[in-house]
């Protein structure tokens, strides 16, 4: 039987290396993550009805994913839809009465 021993210094170094790897993995995971909304979340966020979201999906205005009966929207899809729907002001000099 062969037994290998580890010194305290080696053990501390190993733990430190493992902690750094865990932090790097966690950091990389959170950086690439974007928000995902279901129907209820997006209705509340945009203050629209579920029927409005259905109309937008039917008209192809917003991208979505469906898993079973549940509909999901990425933050990117929501932002793209809002950008496409943006209307520029016709009168930039208007200051009210």
From TrEMBL:
Domain Helix-turn-helix: 37-84
GO MF term set: DNA binding
SUPFAM superfamilies assigned to the protein according to its UniProt record, in alphabetical order: Putative DNA-binding domain
Pfam families hit by this protein: HTH_17 (PF12728)
Keywords assigned: DNA-binding
Keyword DNA-binding: yes
Gene3D superfamilies according to UniProt: 1.10.1660.10
UniProt-recorded name of the protein: DNA-binding protein
Top-level taxon in the UniProt lineage: Bacteria
